[in-house]
Design a protein that fits this description.
This protein folds into two domains: 108 residues, Leucine Dehydrogenase, chain A, domain 1 (Rossmann fold, 3-Layer(aba) Sandwich); 116 residues, Rossmann fold (3-Layer(aba) Sandwich), CATH 3.40.50. It has eleven helices and eleven strands. The protein has a six-stranded parallel beta sheet with strand order 1-11-8-7-5-6. A three-stranded parallel beta sheet has the order 3-2-4, with helices on both faces. A two-stranded antiparallel sheet has the order 9-10. 40% of the residues lie in helices and 14% in strands.
C-alpha cells in the first residue's frame, strides 16, 4: 500500500487567492503592499527561489523589490540596507535571504528587521514572542507545516509528533506551534542518536534537517504522516527532500512531496504575511497575532 501524497499546491492556491483579495481591498484604500528581499550570494539555488517569490508576487499584485548586494557584500552594507528598509514607509515586509557571505553574522542582522515588517519571523524578538504566545509573525515554513496538517485534517492534539531538526527557521518555531496545538512534541537533532528510537512510534514526523534521504522507510510505521521540509540540490541539479521518498512511500500513511509540498505553501504565506503587515501598518493596529491563533491563521500568522 502506497502512502497518500499530501500536495501543497491546492493549499497554496487558496492562500494565493486570499492574497489577491486582500491586495484588491488594500488598493481600494490607495495602498500597495510591497515586499523587499535582500540577497547577498551567488548561490544559484537561492536566486532561483528569490525569482519564484518575485513571480508569485507579480501574479498576486504584491510589489517585490529585490535588493541584490552581491556575494561580496559586507555586514555594514547589509545592516545599512536593513535599517533603511525598516524605516521606509512604502516597504511592508522584509526578508533577509540566506546564505550570506562568509564572515557575515546573520544573528547580528536579523535583529535589525523591525518586527512589524518581519514577515518571516527572523528577528529573535519574533521568536521570543511566539514562544510565550504573544503577537508575532511565525516563520513561513514552520507555519506551512501546520497549515498542511490542518488542510488534510491530520490531528496533532494528543498525538506524538517528532520534529527532526532544531533550526531557528523551522525546527524551534514549529515545535512551539505544535505545542500550542496540544501535540506531544519531540525534537531530534544530530546528538539525539538513532532516529528510529523516536520516529517509529510517532503519529507525525516532520523532517527539516537539510540532509537528502535522511529519513527512510525503516524509520516510520504504517500510521505515520511524514512532512518533508528539506530542499536539497543534487549533483544533477534536481531537487530532493530530506526523505527517501521511494522507501517511505511504501511504508508511511502519508507524505508531502518535494517539490510541490511545503515549499509552495511557504511562498504563498510570505505574500499573505506581507499584505497583512501592510494592512496592520496602515491602520496602526498592534502586530498581528501568532500563527496559532485562529483569527491569525485565517490571515497572516
Amino acid at each position: 500500500m502506497s502512502a497518500s501524497i499530501l500536495s501543497g499546491k491546492p493549499l497554496a492556491a487558496l492562500f494565493q487567492q486570499e492574497v489577491q483579495e486582500q491586495v484588491h481591498s488594500l488598493e481600494l484604500d490607495g495602498l500597495h503592499p510591497v515586499l523587499a528581499v535582500v540577497v547577498a550570494t551567488s548561490d544559484e539555488s537561492t536566486h532561483w527561489y528569490v525569482r519564484s517569490i518575485e513571480r508569485a508576487a507579480g501574479r498576486a499584485g504584491v510589489g517585490c523589490r529585490i535588493i541584490n548586494l552581491g556575494h561580496d557584500a559586507t555586514e555594514p552594507m547589509l545592516a545599512g540596507v536593513l535599517r533603511e528598509l525598516s524605516a521606509e514607509p512604502s516597504v511592508n515586509g522584509i526578508i533577509l535571504q540566506t546564505p550570506l557571505p562568509p564572515g557575515v553574522r546573520t544573528d547580528n542582522l536579523v535583529g535589525l528587521i523591525t518586527p512589524e515588517k518581519d514577515i518571516d519571523g527572523a528577528n529573535p524578538l519574533s521568536l521570543g514572542r511566539l514562544a510565550v504566545g504573544q503577537q508575532a509573525f511565525a516563520p513561513a515554513t514552520a507555519r506551512s507545516v501546520v497549515e498542511i496538517l490542518d488542510h488534510y485534517q491530520v490531528p496533532v492534539a494528543g498525538k506524538a509528533v517528532v520534529v527532526v531538526g532544531r533550526s531557528a527557521v523551522v525546527g524551534k518555531p514549529l515545535s512551539l506551534l505544535l505545542l500550542a496545538r496540544d501535540a506531544a512534541v519531540t525534537v531530534c537533532h544530530s546528538r539525539s542518536g538513532p532516529l528510529e528510537r523516536y520516529t517509529t512510534d510517532a503519529d507525525v514526523v516532520v523532517v527539516a534537517a537539510g540532509r537528502a534521504g535522511l529519513l527512510t522507510g525503516r524509520h516510520v510505521s504504517s500510521r505515520t504522516v511524514v512532512v518533508d521540509v528539506g530542499t536539497n540540490v543534487l549533483p544533477d541539479g534536481s531537487l530532493a527532500g530530506d526523505v527517501d521518498e521511494a522507501s517511505v512511500t511504501g511504508t508511511a500513511a502519508a507524505l508531502t512531496p518535494v517539490p510541490g509540498g511545503v515549499g509552495s505553501v511557504t511562498t504563498a504565506l510570505l505574500l499573505l504575511h506581507t499584505v497583512e503587515a501592510a494592512r496592520r501598518q496602515s491602520s496602526s493596529r498592534p502586530l498581528p497575532g501568532t500563527a496559532v491563533e485562529p483569527q491569525v491563521l485565517e490571515a497572516a500568522g
